[in-house]
Structure formats: C-alpha cells, structure tokens
Design goal:
Blueprint (H helix, E strand, L loop, with lengths): L10 E6 L7 H11 L3 E6 L9 H8 L18 H7 L2 E7 L1 H9 L5 H8 L4 E5 L3 H5 L1 H12 L3 E2 L3 E4 L5 E5 L3 H15 L8 E6 L4 E4 L2 E3 L6 H12 L3 E6 L11 E5 L3 H12 L4 E4 L6 E3 L20 E3 L3 H8 L5 E7 L4 H11 L4 E5 L11 E2 L1 E5 L4 E4 L3 E2 H14 L1
Parallel strand pairs: 1-2, 1-3, 3-4, 4-5, 8-11, 8-13, 11-12, 13-16, 16-17
Antiparallel strand pairs: 6-7, 9-10, 14-15, 17-19, 18-21, 19-20
Helix pairs in contact: 1-2, 1-8, 3-5, 4-7, 9-13
Bound molecules: cytidine-5'-triphosphate.
Length: about 400
C-alpha cells in the first residue's frame, strides 16, 4: 500500500464528468479523505446522470458544485476562488468531450471554467471507449493538455463498459491517489540542496556569413526542464543555452547564452570547475564552416557560395570527461537512429560519462515536442530507467532521481 500521508491537509478539486467510470469516483473521494485531504467535488451536468451528487457530497463532506449559481439562494460559486484554494485538481473520469473542452478552452460549465482558472497542478484520468480513445482528435487533445503542463494519468487496457477489450479504462482510484502522493513527495524533495548543477541545452548555431548558419532542430525543452527541476530540488543551476525560443524564470538558475559550439565549450569548461553534476542535453553541431564570410554572400557574385568546407567542432562532453575529478557526475544524451544501445554505450566510454540518456527518435517524440521516451544506461550497460511516453518536465524528475542514485 502506497504512503499517502503527504496528502494530509491538501485541498483537492475532484472534477467528475459523464462516463460510466464515474462510479469509481466515489472510492476516489473516500481514499483522498482517508489520506486527510479536503475534497471539493465539481460535477458536470452529465456526470449527475451517472452518479448521485448526494453520494459525493456525503463522502466529501461538502456540497457538490455543478452550476455557476445555487438555484434557490443565488449564491455564486467563484471558479477563481476555487482555483486558488486548490493544491491540485483531478479530473476523473475525464470524457473525450471534457478533454476536448479543456484543450480548446470551452468554458460552458463549472468544471472547465474552474480548470481554466486553476493555478495548481492538474491531473487528468481519461476514461472512454477504445475507439474514442484512439480517435486522432482525442490523441491531439490529450497532447494539448500535456503541452499545457497537465499530468495525464493514462487509462489502462482491459474490458470496457461496451464489453470491448482495449485501452480506455480509467486508472484505478488507488493508483490515482498514488500518483498525487508521488507528485507532492517529489515537489517537496530537496535532495539537490547545496549542489551546483550545470546543464547544456538547445542547439548551437555555426555561422556561414552574418545571416546564415548551420543548426539543428533541438528546441532546448528537455535541458530547460532539467535545469528547472534541479533548481526546484534545491540546486544552484548554471544553464548554458544555445539559441532557443524558450526562457525560464525559475529562481536559482543562471543562464549563460551562447551561440556556437566553441562558445559553449568555453562556458562549460569554466562552469564545470565548481559543478557537482553536469548534464549535457545540448545538441551540439558536430561541424562548423571552416571559413566565416564577413559579408553576406551574394547569389550573383563570383565569390558566391558553391560549397562549404566543414571542420570538426570540439567535443564538449569529452573535454569535461577528461577534466572530471572524483565526485563529479557527468551525464550525456544520445540520439541514435541505428544500433541505439550499442552506440549509446560506446559514447559513455568514449566521453567518460557516468550515465547516458538515450532519446527515442520514434515519430512524434524527442525534438520540438513536449513529450519524450528515454532509456538511461550506466557504464556497465545496466538500464537505470526505461520510461513510457511522458511530459519532458516529468521525465526531468525521473532522470534527476536516477542521477542522484548513481
Ligand atoms: N556532445 C558535446 N559536444 C559535441 C557533441 C556532442 O558535448 N561536439 C554531447 C551531447 O551534448 C550529448 C553527447 O555528447 O550529451 C552525445 O551527443 P551526440 O551528438 O549523440 O554524439 P556525437 O559524439 O556527436 O556522436 P554522433 O553524432 O556521431 O552520434
């Protein structure tokens, strides 16, 4: 049985939508209340067809909210106040329709309106028939929710209300409560207090002339997520970032902006001197143009560009691997299309890393998106983490857990 004591005193909004799995919400409230949490239930009008509000108000000890106003007293239920009151919002079961409304901001009921006002972490436990679950609109809407930072509690596969077998069963209440308990346990974790963590992130740009450069499509999201989570866990973080379209405002992070691989190397060598942990999440350009043209190369001129001679850039991770002293941890990333594991492991030894994070290159994962699938290996080839598809921010915590355990 999971330790749920961390939920004591937490304010939880439980949103219930109109699906057969709404009957499981009764157990969910009971488990939250048993763990010491205060629960405010909000039901959509349809949810009331599936489970009686009186059951939910009795179990939660609070009147259930469905409408914007209480009919006889005219009392207004402030979605803004509710959103501020909550430490977490859980929508279970979440139907395809509510997920669509949340993704699109359709605030036509109290539940979605409160969701849009909520400042707290939001957990969504989808439940629907397998074909609805597999429909591209559902998949896309769930991806939207993930990109807003919401946590998706994936439905399990099994027998559904339609008697069909497939993915769409709402996760069991015990497991939903465990997900929240883990979340709060992690959020209060300060295991990196007093540590200096260095992270490289994003691509590098290797200029050809004042307006052109060689680059790759790394977004920097994974590196930024690692820097933010490390800072939240108490570390002093130096984030060495190539050119990206994202920024961070989390306290405790010093950002050094660089453009080329050589700039990144210089910043990394200086920072590594005092770092306890270095995480090399940048997608460094392996080559740069040998010649930089001071003036924009003209298409028509005789000196127009026919070919670019490339020279090798320094290997930043390998340079740190040589400089590494006892007690420092150096973590690399690898992105492979062939012989994934063998190539990743050869990089660990070539660059003297302590662990390597192998990114998945399957469709829709890795570059530019908010989710990823990774495997982490140690120097002996042991798998330290084998993740499912997850939000990069959640993966960042998983990866930091692994690094702490090395
Ligand atoms: N890396 C680095 N400096 C470089 C190239 C890579 O610091 N010039 C780091 C990356 O940040 C990553 C690890 O080394 O942590 C592996 O990067 P990857 O590009 O996969 O490896 P390469 O050595 O460039 O090998 P290849 O491109 O041939 O797969």
């Amino acid at each position: 049985m999971h330790d749920t004591s961390i939920l004591a005193g937490k304010h939880i909004i439980l949103g219930i939508t109109g699906g057969i799995a709404a009957y499981k919400s009764a157990s969910l409230v009971r488990l939250f209340v048993k763990a010491g949490a205060e629960v405010q239930v909000i039901m959509t009008p349809n949810a009331r067809q599936f489970i009686a509000p009186v059951t939910m108000s009795t179990l939660s000890g609070k009147p259930v909210i469905t409408e914007f106003f209480t009919a006889n007293s005219g009392e207004w239920h402030s979605h803004v106040d509710l959103g501020l009151w909550a430490d977490a919002m859980v929508i279970a079961p979440a139907t395809a329709s509510t997920i669509g409304k949340m993704a699109g901001g359709v605030a036509d009921n109290m539940l979605v309106t409160t969701y849009l006002s909520a400042k707290c972490p939001v957990f969504v436990a989808p439940a629907m028939d397998l074909d609805m679950m597999a429909h591209p609109s559902t998949t896309r809407n769930i991806e939207y929710l993930r990109s807003y930072g919401n946590h998706i509690i994936e439905p399990a596969a099994g027998e559904l209300a339609s008697h069909l077998i497939g993915k769409g069963r709402m996760e069991e209440p015990e497991n939903i409560v465990a997900v929240l308990a883990d979340f709060f346990a992690r959020a209060s974790k300060r295991d990196l207090d007093g540590k200096h963590v260095m992270v490289t992130a994003g691509p590098t740009h290797e200029p050809i002339d004042p307006v052109r450069y060689i680059a790759n499509s790394s977004s920097g999201k994974m590196g930024y997520a690692l820097a933010e989570k490390a800072a939240r866990r108490g570390a002093r973080v130096t984030l060495i970032s190539g050119p990206v379209n994202i920024s961070t405002s989390v306290p405790g992070i010093d950002v050094i902006h660089v453009t080329t691989a050589r700039d990144m190397l210089e910043a990394a060598i200086a920072t590594f001197k005092t770092a306890d942990i270095a995480i090399m999440a940048a997608a460094v350009a392996d080559y740069r143009p040998e010649v930089y043209h001071d003036h924009k190369i003209k298409r028509e001129s005789d000196s127009g560009l026919q070919e670019i001679t490339l020279v090798k850039n320094p290997d930043i991770a390998a340079s740190l691997g040589k400089a590494k002293h006892h007690g420092q941890k150096l973590i690399g990333f690898a992105l492979e299309t062939d012989n994934e594991q063998a190539n990743a492991l050869s990089k660990i030894h070539r660059k003297n890393l302590d662990a390597i994070v192998l990114n998945s290159l399957r469709q829709g994962e890795c570059f530019g998106v908010d989710t990823n699938i990774v495997k982490v290996f140690d120097r002996d080839g042991n798998i330290l983490l084998d993740s499912p598809l997850k939000a990069k921010s959640d993966l960042a915590d998983d990866i930091l857990d692994v690094i702490s355990s090395i």
